[in-house]
Amino acid sequence: MVKTNTNKDLLKEKGFLSQRQDDFFSMRLHAAGGNLTSDYLRAVADAADRYGKGYVHVTSRQGIEIPFVHLDDTEAARNEMDSKDIGPGASGKKIRAVVACQGDRVCKRGLIDCQGICEEIDNLYFAEPVPYKFKIAVTGCPASCLKVQENDFGIMGFSESVFVEENCVMCRACEKVCGVSAITIENGSLYLDMHKCVSCGSCIRACRKDAMQNQEQGYTIFVGGKVGKRPRMGDMLLRTSDRSVIFDVLEKSINYYRENAQEGERLGDVIDRVGLDAFRETIKYP
Question: Which of 15, 104, 125, 199 is the most exposed place for a label (fewest CB within 10 A)?
Fold first, then answer.
């Protein structure tokens, strides 16, 4: 029987989260980026049948939990998952599993290798200790299916277009595909409004005459986002075409958070308290 907070804390470290039913736990499993192999799924299904009630819960962060694992079965369930190389999920004051879309490996709109970035970040930082919690998301384009602006650290692909007038035949393909009305054609002239443009690259893909060309492609980094009782949209920190910059800025952001966060603060709370300019100065990127 679980009677002390100490026992529950130890179980939580192994991925077991207390349910409202006495002595039952949801077993949280490590999964990154929503990519689950068939072997992983078979192992989870077997464990759900053996230790739970024959079903799993897919969390809002692409994770897997097996509810209704009884206290008496927690050790056996954890050992079985370990034997299948499936570790416990993270909770509490830790860096959580990275969420990511399929990016340019699968999605026709994907501009970056979201799964590759996700795997590398997960290998470096998953379950590392932080002052409260730290969530990371990677999305392939400005459609932001993974809601990177709602995470402590978000990475979004971008593709900035440039109009090459001599190639244009005024077919209007780019105008039709632009979802933010950044492109208009009037009186035989095309206007590209970069204040409206979100750098999704749709016009480049639509153009068959190479009149819309890729001027720069890379990564937009957002910091300080969160949801919950006091939601906050992340601030756009920078754009870069250099993949290594992502990891440099992420490392600096995590270290800054560890050094400056007060009790119960997320990264966005720290930024609000010290100011985005002060944070940016510390990170050392314009």
Answer: 104
Q: Taking the complete model, does pTM exceed 0.85, yes or no?
A: yes
Q: Is 205 helix (H, G, I), strand (E, B) or coil?
A: helix
Gap between the Cα atoms of 232 and 154, Å rounded: 13
Residue by residue, DSSP assigns 117-129 as HHHHHHHHHTT-B
Can you list the alpha helix ranges (DSSP code H) found in the chain? Answer: 5-13, 38-51, 74-83, 114-125, 173-177, 202-206, 243-260, 267-274, 276-283
Among 131, 169, 162, smallest CA distance to 267 is for 131
Reference 142, options 169, 116, 111, 175; nearest CA is 111
Q: Cα dist. 214→18, 131, 140, 205, 235 in Å?
A: 50, 41, 16, 10, 25
User: Which domains are present in the chain?
Assistant: 5-83 (3.30.70.3340), 99-283 (3.30.413.10)
Which pair of structure tokens corresponds to residue 67? 């509810």
Which residue's entry shows tokens 């919690």?
Answer: 133
